[in-house]
Amino acid sequence: MSSQLRIGVYDCLYLALAEREKCEFITADNKLVNNVQQHFAFVRHVSTLP
């Protein structure tokens, strides 16, 4: 998954955890959001929070 989505292994672990726990994954990493948001809708950039 890391090489396919072009993201780090640790990011993949947190992504898998958020998916398993059915919660949002909030991050300040623009590159991560851009690379995975089309596959995982629960990934949000911190700037979108109220």
Describe, in plain words, how this protein is organized in 3D:
The chain has 50 residues and is α+β, with helices and mostly antiparallel strands. It has one domain. The chain has 3 helices and 2 strands; from the N terminus they run H-H-E-H-E. It has a two-stranded parallel ribbon with strand order 1-2. Strand 1 (25-27), helix 3 and strand 2 form a beta-alpha-beta unit. The longest helix is centred in the N-terminal third of the chain and has 13 residues, at 9-21. The termini are far apart.
Offer a concise description of the structure.
The protein has helices at residues 2-5, 9-21, 30-36; strands spanning 25-27, 43-45. With 50 residues, the chain is an alpha+beta fold.
Report the mean per-residue pLDDT as an integer: 94
Q: How large is the count of helical segments? A: 3
Strand order across the biggest sheet? 1-2
Count of domain modules = 1
Task: Give the helix proportion (percent range).
Answer: 40-55%
Largest sheet: 2 strands, parallel
Main attributes of the structure:
2 strands; 3 helices
Topology:
Elements: H1 2-5, H2 9-21, E1 25-27, H3 30-36, E2 43-45
Parallel strand pairs: 1-2
